[in-house]
């Protein structure tokens, strides 16, 4: 049997879709150079990320609608006071 099993992982993250998202995002972070949080003999990023979930080293929380809305907001640039007319 493979460790960690899907049943073990689903006790850590609420459903398999969120589990896939969490593991894939963490695997991408590992590929991009983040340090692994567990000591296992595996070198594959997905395996490392899966073990990190199983050992509660990483968690997953869905963003609220308000958090999503605020994340996309940036400070608006000041508008120019002058109106220039471009002639062709």
CATH architecture of the domain at 6-65, please? Alpha-Beta Complex
Mind telling me the CATH superfamily name of the domain at 6-65?
Answer: RNA polymerase subunit, RPB6/omega
Helix content: 40-55%
- Mind telling me the CATH class of the domain at 6-65? Alpha Beta
- Radius of gyration, taken over Cα atoms and rounded to an integer in Å: 21 Å
Instruction: Let me know the average pLDDT.
Output: 84
Report the order of strands and helices: HHHH
Q: Would you count the extended β strands for me?
A: 0
Please outline the major beta sheet: none
| The CATH topology of the domain at 6-65 | Eukaryotic RPB6 RNA polymerase subunit
InterPro entries: DNA-dir_RNA_pol_omega, Pol_omega/Rpo6/RPB6, RPB6/omega-like_sf
Function: Promotes RNA polymerase assembly. Latches the N- and C-terminal regions of the beta' subunit thereby facilitating its interaction with the beta and alpha subunits.
GO molecular function, one term: DNA binding
EC number: 2.7.7.6
